[in-house]
Amino acid sequence: QKEKKMKDEKIFIKRSEVKRLASLFKVSEVMVYMALRYDRDSELAKKIRHTALKSKADGGCDGEIWKRIK
User: Fold this and answer.
1) pLDDT higher than threshold 60 for residue 1
2) pLDDT tens digits, 11-51
3) How far apart are CA 51 and CA 70, in angstroms?
4) Burial, 15: exposed, middle or buried (Cβ in 10 Å; 0-12, 13-18, 19+)?
5) Which of 4, 25, 32, 39 has the fewest Cβ atoms surrounding its Cβ within 10 A?
6) 7 contacts 65 by C-beta, under 8 angstroms
């Protein structure tokens, strides 16, 4: 069940924010995209998602969660 949820949900942020997260966490942009698509569920991926969803005032990216509607 969890696997299905992970594939139906994505976090959207601006490309410039992807670059900033990659630099902040010292990972590739591909890793950031994989975390935002829930293709990875490691502690690092969870931290990336958390930061992506935080408000810019709190140092985040103002990301939005989009869910697939079936």
Assistant:
1) no
2) 999 999 999 999 999 999 999 999 999 999 999 999 999 99
3) 28
4) exposed
5) 4
6) no
